[in-house]
Design goal:
509 residues; 3 domains; 47% helix; alpha+beta; Heat Shock Protein 90; 10 helices; single chain
Length: 509
Amino acid sequence: MRCSTGFLSLFSSADQACCTMMPSQGTSAKGWQETLRHGTMAQVTMKTVRNKSTRILLFSSAFVLLVAVSLLWVVTIRETERRDLLLEYEAFRASSAVVDEYRKDPSFIPDDDKRIIGFGFYRLDGSSSLRYGSAPEAVPMQDLLFARNQESRATGLPGSVSVAFADNKKSIRLIRYSGLQNPARMMNPGGAVLGQGMGMGKGRQAQPQAQIPEFLTSGELILLGGTYFIWMEYAADGLDGERLQFFLVAALISAALLGLYILLVFVFRHNEDLLKRETEMRELVQLGEAARTLVHEIKNPLGIMRIQTARIRRATPQLAESADIIEGEIMRLSGLADRIREFLKPGQARRDPVDLQSFLVSYCNRYKDLGDSGIELVLDFAVSGSAIVSADAEKLGIALDNLIRNAIEAVEILPAGERQIALRLFRREGSWIISVIDSGRGIPAEILKRIFDPFFTTKEKGSGIGLSLAKRLVESFGGSLAYEGTDGGGAVFSIGLKEEKARTVPTPS
């Protein structure tokens, strides 16, 4: 259906109200200014202190987190190194036990210990005299004892010991000397005696291996106490699993600590947002108190001006046109004052069942003369059956007035024939939607986040109250108001109302 209306003279320019006046009581106005100024300074000071404290706390928390994670990984690495040393010590003890058994019985074979993968006795030149399991035929003794690789271990173990993990990391290979003298101290890779000339071990060097008869068997060599080497490959059962567990636990704890810190930052930011909103609300309360008083101060002289305008019209007919203009401006200011008062104190909303179809038909009749201004208002019902909601009909009407007023201002600047406004009713996801659609230029994307902020406006003479008042009124009875842009330009403001089960609905007046 179509309807044109005519509250255009009252609403088309109400948002453009702009007036400057001196308060009737200068002292009280000065008091408001001082109160607002001191309140703002105090809020700025509190905000500065709060931000500084927050930064200090966050930096301190980050430092503590860094220290805790560093200590955790240091402990983890030290523990894995301790497990490696423990495994080396077990291999060293196992090699000593095997040597003791060979001293008792040269035919001994270490089958009882499943962790001993290979075992052998070697001369100083690296040739083997006895081998078992994975023991090689020859071992480069000089390289292993004097040019140790990165995984070698000597600290805490007696004698010259070389320990290295096998390529598959599932076992370690230990080489240690046994006999009268440590050959690593007795000679260097070139054959020179170590320690001589430095006051170390003088007179204590044993006879070199070359002086021991080559025909001695390994058992005879052990029994005579000659110098020889022991090679052993010892299984590192479960060591990789333990390492993985240590690093996994450390990683999980680090991730948990990092997550806690991120949560802490999120909580602090959330608290900052809440404090910021609280500050803004305090400012709005102060502004509301001042605005409430200003509305009262404006309404009184406006009433007097209307009375005097009526007297001028009666006394001087030739000034009737000017009087009409003055009265129109007075009505505009009076309407603005009423809207500010409504915004500052919306009152308790009622929730009654409302038939939206009947309500919108009745509401559209208020704008039946809108076509005289070249604006086409279209009422579109995409409804099958009744559309019953729980709402405050009076406040819903005021909210729609503000949306229609903005739509009128948006299309007024368009050429005749393009000025179109639509009121559309449809159902979406269990709610009834009333959309106010205009064919204007739309709203710039950069200001969309602020269009519902109180007193925000881009109009030269706008008040910035209409949209914020409409949103507050709709939300007061459980509805929602949102902006939905269109690809082809124009603006779409949608009011969402929860569907109400069918019950008796009062007939709209």
